[in-house]
Every structure is written in structure tokens, then in C-alpha cells.
Design brief:
heterodimer; A: about 300 residues; alpha+beta; six-stranded antiparallel beta barrel; 6 helices; elongated; B: about 150 residues; globular
Chain lengths: ~300, ~150
Amino acid sequence: MINRQSVIAVSRRTGQVLATGADARRMLDRRPAEIVLMPTLRARRGSRSTPLFLGLCASMALLTALSQQPWAAGVRGAAKSALAPALAVMTEVAAPVDRLTSMLGGNASLRAENDRLRLADEQLRAQLLQLDTVEKENAQLRQALNFAQSSGYRMVAASVVGRGPDGFSVTMEVDRGTDDGVRAGMVVVTGAGLLGRVREAGPRFAIVETLADAQARVDVELVNANVQGTVFGGASPLRLVLQQPPGVAVSNGDWALTSGAGGAFPRGLVVGEVSGPGRLAWVNDPHAVDFVLVITDFEPS
Amino acid sequence: MAALVLAAALIQLTTAYRFEVFGVTPNLVVVAVIAAVWTFGSAAGLAAACAGGLLLDLGSPGALGPHALALLPGAYVAAMWPRARAEWANLTLMALSAAVAALLYAAVLVALDGQVRLGAATAIYDLVLAPPAFLLVRAVGLGRITRRAQA
């Protein structure tokens, strides 16, 4: 019955309802120019949810605008801090599931394992580079690869409890915040090298924008070629744009360290290894990072 | 429904990256919202979009609200989406509505963020995930309603 009455035939000229349901459909076959069929149920369904939709959109737009205000930062931080424990619990719960999927095999797990092994390999190569650097008494590399000891930066260790919800913000949430001395803008590293910087911090959480985010930019210098350039964030491999003087060759395998130019990052942090023209293999894989170090006493300019 | 949205958001923020295929991760909150719309109706679906979006906002940098704003158009369109009598046709329509919702989600975030990166691949992923999610949510949701009615 509902389907039969789901359309009405209306006169274009007078607006009068001429027929309903099956009768209206039969009129469509003849289709006089002045008659139009209108779906009634869909129109009614739309009319019911449209005000609610518009009201919710207006509310969310207002919330978006208000929560960006400086005076709302405390409330916003407190709300985000409240979610951090739930994320930490969920991460703990998911860990055995991940191990189980690894045991069961499958392409995704194998690929993830491969990525982890590749990361481990890169970390070992970074350590080899460190040893080589020590031998050559290259102070710049020693500072980059062993910055915790050589530079004396104060650092806060933090566990990764959450990730950005989609590809639009390649971020990760860690379980340390302003209560631990972590502030927005601070540089975040792992044992392998530069990871990113703190974009937002609350009392018990901080959100780290990684180099995988398209908005990330880092000034670097290549160790062997002694050439400066800029690394642009995005999907791996990262894009590397060099200020390459004529006659200077850049070979694959050259290491890129932060140059310290502009004062955004400390000088000498390992960023990655040149893997091709304009390409840099980042030493970190944000999917494989579980613990990070936040440098708390470097003030970016 | 609240538990469904909460679970989807927590999984999205903690473990969804493990299901990456060709660099694309599914958006489980979009799938949950669309399943809620098709199971419980437009009002419940819009509420789920708000709640799920706010949870995603809590795990993202920046303001509270953009992800909720991004989910609402998809829920609204899914509420307007035509229904079919045949089960297979309904599942197909539902999957398409999930893909459209994922595209709208990406489009709104692009508009809010000012970046030109559209999640078309995510839409395809969600299109595949939506029918089983809908069947699961419907089975659980209708089962509870039936049990309440019998009690």
C-alpha cells in the first residue's frame, strides 16, 4: 500500500493533485505536458531529517569555530586528554590481535613485518654509520646519531597510543603532555632519527605531526655531498629538493641530516637516506613506531 | 548504537592502520554511521555521525567538530538514498551510499583543510566493507529490539 501511494500526479498549471499511486503511474505513461509525478515518501523523509541535519551542521560548525579560539584551548585539551586513556587501553587490547594476525600470515601482516625488518635494517645501518662517524671524529654525525649523549638535550619518553583517523593528517597521539613538560612545537625523535614535531599538547597527551604529513618541511644537508636541501613530507619515499651546485654529484645512500637552517629543528638529526633522484627513504615508519622521545629543551625559532 | 560508534572510533584511532592496503586505510566510522542510518533511521544515523566525528576530533590535532561536519553529509545522503525490496539490491545500494559518504567525508575535510587530497580509494574500501557491517549491525540491532519486544 505504501509503495502504491508513493507518488502523486500534480497539475503543473493549477498545482492540484490529480491522482495517487498506481493511477498516477498510469498517467505518467500518457504524460500530458501539464502533469508531473512527485515522490511523496522520499519528500516526507527528507523533510523530516533535513532540519535535524542542518541543525547539527550548524552546531558542529559553531563548535569548530569556538574550539579554535585561544580561550578554548584548555577545555579542548582536557577533552582530548580524557580520550587518551581509552586509546591506550585499546592499543593494549589490539596488540595481541596484531600478533595473532602475524601468526596467521596474510599479505598485510607480511608486508608489515617486511616494513619492520626494513626499518630494523635501516636502524642498524644508521648505527653502523654512527660507528664510522666516531672513528672519523666527525662531530656533526656524532651529534646526529647519538644526540642524546652528545648534545645533552633533555628528552621525555612517550608511548604512542593513537594514530590520525585518516590519511588527511598523518599524526600520532602520545601519552605525555603539558604535565610532563611537552609543549606544541617541540621536536620528536626516535632511536633512528627525526620523527616530527608536537602539533598540539594537553595535560596528558600530545599529538605529533610526523614527516609523513604533507605539510611537513625539514631543511637538510647531505653528509657526503655536502649539499643543502629541503625534505617535503608525504608518503614514503619523501620528496627531496636539493640546492645542488653544478658539478656536485649526489649518490644513492648518502645520508640526510637536519641542517638547522631556520632554527626549526636542531642540527644533525638523521632524517633519511637518498634512495634516488629527489627521493629520500625516511628512517622512520610511523606505523612501526611505538615509543618516541620529545626534546624538551630545544626552542624552535 | 553508541557502543558501535565508540568501538569504530577507537579502532579507527588505534588499529585501523594495520588494515592498510596499497597505502589506504578504511574509515570504519563512516561504515558504522552508514550501517546505523540503514538500520536505525536517519535521526539515529545523524546522531551517530556527530558522536563518531567528535570522537575522531578528540584523536586529531586542531578544533573539535571538523570530522563530525565531514560525516554529517554522508549520513544525510544515506538517509535520502533509495531503498530496494530485494536484499541484494538493498545491500548494493547501501554499499554505494557508504562509498558516497566516504567521498563526501573526504571532500568536506579537503574543503576545511584546504588540501587537495581526495579519499577515493577509501571510498572503494568502505564500499566493500559496508554490506557485511550493515548485516552485522542489523542482526545485532534487530535482535535486541526483538528481545525487548518479547520481554
